[in-house]
Amino acid sequence: MIVDHAIISWEPANNFPAIEAFYASVGYLGLIAPSSGVIAARDGDTIVGAARIARENGVLVLRGMMIAPSHQRRGLGTAMLSELDKHIGRSECFCLPHGWLQHFYGQIGFATIAEDISPSHLRERLKAGRIKYPRLVIMRRPERLY
Q1: At 105, is the secondary structure helix, strand, or coil?
Q2: Which terminus of the chain has a lower count of CB atoms within 10 Å, N or C?
Q3: Kind of pairing between the strands at 93-95 and 59-67
């Protein structure tokens, strides 16, 4: 898929170091588990966006949706989200975005849920994350039956 001169594609595990370097460049730290599914947006040879889907403690989690500041507000995030939607498929999925992104993730069926009904490991991550980002929320996209 091509959006605003950026090409969106799924990445093989041998490209994860480049994705991790992109994440570090935008202030998102952490390693990518080899079992994760990773999507990247490239403008030429430069990675300008990334996101991943990981199975954690038996649930699917959308993580690390990041767009380079130079490429924000151009439709790239929405295009990436649409591609992620295809790969999430019918599965239930969770994410922990900033509260102001609820409408964005709502485009593919995510809705904010009460913390006490979310998986315990995500409640712990939310609590830790809110130290730096107090407006984080837990969102869930229910399993699709169709």
Answers
A1: helix
A2: C
A3: parallel
What's the chain's length in residues? 146
Residue pair 5/43 in contact by the 8 Å Cβ criterion: yes
Domain coordinates of the chain in residue numbers? Answer: 2-141
Q: DSSP strand E in the chain: where?
A: 2-3, 6-11, 37-43, 46-56, 59-67, 93-95, 111-112, 139-141
Residue 129 is encoded by which pair of tokens? 């994350």
**What residue type is assigned to position 47 of the chain?**
I
Distance CA(31)–CA(4), nearest Å, equals: 28
Q: Output the pTM of the full model.
A: 0.90
**2-141: CATH topology:** Aminopeptidase (3.40.630)
Measured over the CA atoms of residue 55, residue 56, residue 59 and residue 61, the dihedral's sign is negative
At 48-96, the pLDDT tens digits run 999 999 999 999 999 999 999 999 988 899 999 999 999 999 999 999 9
